[in-house]
């Protein structure tokens, strides 16, 4: 295990909202909410009123009536992300992206050229501010986990170094929610057991943690609480899934036909991304958020891997139909689809007998028309006359 603090976790602050404030000077210093029906991001001025990501738009406006609500601009966020990641890669070739707005960087080999890790982190922050116009928080530590916790603690717009000889002093007093993988449900379960800090979890035996939290989760969280995280920064990790989701606004009754249009739009886009990248998927995952903010996930594995829109849509429709009673009773505020267990299409062997009418011809024609005339040039029949709205990438809700 590494003995020096050479891992950086760099995390853009309130990313979507910060891009909006950067591009519109009149928004600076004011509470900004990105997304109307559901909060996709909030500026720190808005967070001061208790507004959080994934909160309903109505509730957010009740908390802060003077907040300025702006629609999301995914192209602008993607462009800003590319600019920042170019700075990361110009700093070190060892960059592991986690999402559109955060990454790990290994800088232990830069001492002769660029100085100590803390100096590298300080210059990185200066460059992101000067070249991209955005604030970024950076944690520096011996392991990826500690670096990520340090960047979160340093927010907003901060830099925090955790020396190896002060790791326990830094980590153990923190609330268990700081552990990577502890969400609201797990945190509440631990609190009911009287475990509120990382140190209290670390005091348990590993077997006790596994019994309380399940074997895999218990072992993982117990290891982190005891400062065990041997994972190196991975620069060539193949993406294992792609996804897209659509926020639906306030929970209200939606017809099956309306939900099917939304679902088909999401799947249509994802399947085309598979084909553009010469990829196929083996698992379809449906993600829902209900009106009471509870979440549900349904998944189904396919036989042979596929990139066919019709096959993927058929599976997604079956998964959605299974959830129809819950949707009817609780309302729906978000629907998302992920395609997992990705592989290379060129490496797949077709199964016999080959079905030449499995939708491949239609997909090929639609892709060609869209490539030439634009994404909106042609739609499937169920989508005609319906507003496509907007979809957002599936991202960690940590902003």
Automatic annotation (TrEMBL):
InterPro entries in the cross-refs: DNA/RNA_pol_sf, DNA_pol_Y-fam_lit_finger_sf, DNA_pol_Y-fam_little_finger, DNA_polymerase-Y, DNApol_IV, PolY_HhH_motif, Rev_trsase/Diguanyl_cyclase, UmuC
UniProt GO MF annotations: damaged DNA binding; DNA-directed DNA polymerase activity; magnesium ion binding
Main location: cytoplasm
Co-factor requirement: Mg(2+)
Active site positions: 102
Location of the UmuC domain: 7-183
Catalyzed reactions per annotation: DNA(n) + a 2'-deoxyribonucleoside 5'-triphosphate = DNA(n+1) + diphosphate
EC number: 2.7.7.7
Record-level GO cellular component terms: cytosol
Subcellular location(s) of the protein: Cytoplasm
Site (Substrate discrimination): 16
Residues reported to bind Mg(2+): 11, 101
Cofactor note: Binds 2 magnesium ions per subunit.
Membrane-spanning intervals of the chain: none
PROSITE patterns referenced in this protein's UniProt entry, alphabetically: UMUC
One annotated GO biological process: DNA-templated DNA replication
Matching Pfam families: IMS (PF00817), IMS_C (PF11799), IMS_HHH (PF11798)
CDD domains to which the protein is assigned, alphabetical: PolY_Pol_IV_kappa
Keywords assigned: Cytoplasm, DNA damage, DNA repair, DNA replication, DNA-binding, DNA-directed DNA polymerase, Magnesium, Metal-binding, Mutator protein, Nucleotidyltransferase, Transferase
NCBIfam families, sorted: PRK02406.1, PRK03858.1
Family in the record: Belongs to the DNA polymerase type-Y family.
Function according to Swiss-Prot or TrEMBL: Poorly processive, error-prone DNA polymerase involved in untargeted mutagenesis. Copies undamaged DNA at stalled replication forks, which arise in vivo from mismatched or misaligned primer ends. These misaligned primers can be extended by PolIV. Exhibits no 3'-5' exonuclease (proofreading) activity. May be involved in translesional synthesis, in conjunction with the beta clamp from PolIII.
Subunit text: Monomer.
Descriptive protein name: DNA polymerase IV
Organism, as annotated: Schumannella soli
Source species taxonomy: Bacteria, Bacillati, Actinomycetota, Actinomycetes, Micrococcales
């Amino acid at each position: 295990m590494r003995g020096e603090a050479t891992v950086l976790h760099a995390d853009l602050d309130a990313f979507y909202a910060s891009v909006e404030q950067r591009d519109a000077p009149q928004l600076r210093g004011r509470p900004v909410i990105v997304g109307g029906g559901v909060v996709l991001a909030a500026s720190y001025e808005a967070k001061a009123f208790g507004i959080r990501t994934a909160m309903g738009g109505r509730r957010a406006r009740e908390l802060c009536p003077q907040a300025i609500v702006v629609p999301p601009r995914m192209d602008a966020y993607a462009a800003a992300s590319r600019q920042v990641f170019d700075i990361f890669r110009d700093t070190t070739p060892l960059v592991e992206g986690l999402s559109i707005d955060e990454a790990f960087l290994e800088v232990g080999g830069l001492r002769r050229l660029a100085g100590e890790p803390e100096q590298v982190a300080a210059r990185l922050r200066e460059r992101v501010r000067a070249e991209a116009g955005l604030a970024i928080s950076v944690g520096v530590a011996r392991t990826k986990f500690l670096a990520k916790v340090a960047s979160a603690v340093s927010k907003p717009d901060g830099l925090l170094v955790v020396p190896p000889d002060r790791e326990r002093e830094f980590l153990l007093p923190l609330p268990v929610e700081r552990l990577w993988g502890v969400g609201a449900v797990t945190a509440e379960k631990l609190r009911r057991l009287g475990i509120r800090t990382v140190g209290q979890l670390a005091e348990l035996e590993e077997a006790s943690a596994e019994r309380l939290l399940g074997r895999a989760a218990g072992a993982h969280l117990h290891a982190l609480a005891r400062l065990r995280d041997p994972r190196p920064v991975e620069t060539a990790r193949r993406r294992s899934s792609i996804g897209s989701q659509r926020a639906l606004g306030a929970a209200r009754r939606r017809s099956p036909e309306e939900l099917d249009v939304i679902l088909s739009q999401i799947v249509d886009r994802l399947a085309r991304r598979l084909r553009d990248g010469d990829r196929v998927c083996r698992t379809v995952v449906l993600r829902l958020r209900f009106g009471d903010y509870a979440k549900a996930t349904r998944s189904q594995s396919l036989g042979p891997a596929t990139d066919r829109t019709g096959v993927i849509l058929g599976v997604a429709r079956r998964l959605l139909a299974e959830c129809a009673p819950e949707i009817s009773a609780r309302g729906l505020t978000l629907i998302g689809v992920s395609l997992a267990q990705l592989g290379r299409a060129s490496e797949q062997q077709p199964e016999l007998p080959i079905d030449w009418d499995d939708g491949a011809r239609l997909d090929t024609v639609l892709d060609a028309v869209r490539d030439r005339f634009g994404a909106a040039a042609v739609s499937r029949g169920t989508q005609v006359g319906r507003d496509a709205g907007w979809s957002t990438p599936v991202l960690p809700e940590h902003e």
